User: What shape does this take?
Amino acid sequence: MSRLALAERPRRLRQSAALRRMVAETRLSPRELIYPLFVRPGQDLARPISSMPGQYQWSADRLVGEVARAVAAGVGAVMLFGIPAAKDPAGSAMHDPAGVVPTAVRRLKDAHPDLVVMVDLCLCDYTDHGHCGILTPDGRVDNDATVASLAAAAVLFAEAGADVVAPSDMMDGRVGAIRSALDQSGHLDTLVLSYAVKYASGFYAPFREAAENRPQFGDRRGYQMDVANAREALREARLDMAEGADVLMVKPALSSLDILARLAPMVDRPLAAYQVSGEYSQILAAAQCGWLDERAAALETLLAIRRAGAQLILTYFAVKAAQWLSE
Ligand code: PBG
Assistant: This one.
């Protein structure tokens, strides 16, 4: 048998599972996964979200049980989204201290004092028009009025016991305003995780069923970023760091791997990525058709997101992935 005279044989490193495991550069661990959850008013509810198989809208009592599963699997944190009892143009339910999210935060903190509890901070879950802000009379999102509303809600969520508030609205200046509202109200230790780079994306579609917040007119392109732009992502990240964000996040994850790779060396604090609803649902749908293997596809995407530079990953696979990783 003739042999090639090769100086380099990279395959040597791949010849056994033990060698592959030893040389793997990137690893996933459950503590770096954050589990997004939807909470609604009521009792004993786990309403399936049809476009997100395996995900539910929970009442606060049932949420505690689901979170216990996540904690047992070693998941690092949860991120709460609220579906209020009533919506109006100003999203006033966001400011109710007895609202769905503050109530859920208190219950989770009672049951799991050591769990990191994050709260998504955005008006779109609370407004009847479904936009991420307060509208001007001509139907545009008023940046500064929206920022003031978010800063006030951040204080309310911190008071309920949230460890982290996560503005996902993409208004200018909101991180600084939230930071100073938290500081002035004595919440010096509440972290701000900023959705620093959030692209307008077709991959949020299932989430809009989950959070019941589809915009009633127009779209979110006046505040979320254009997928065409990368330099703008660097600018958004720089601004949020200057305004005091403790953690920066990029979303969607899989279509932003280049952005993660560019931000990783520049961001001097934890960098997160959000594997969004559509990224989850497309894998579930294909798996249900028998076209791909859910576990292999999910773990591959999570590993690629880590490899690109994200340290933390928000993912609807959090509990399953944590269990797979511990097997
Ligand atoms: C809204 C918000 C969205 C998501 C998180 N926060 C939807 C949007 O901006 O349209 C999407 C998350 C997902 O798709 O899983 N502030």
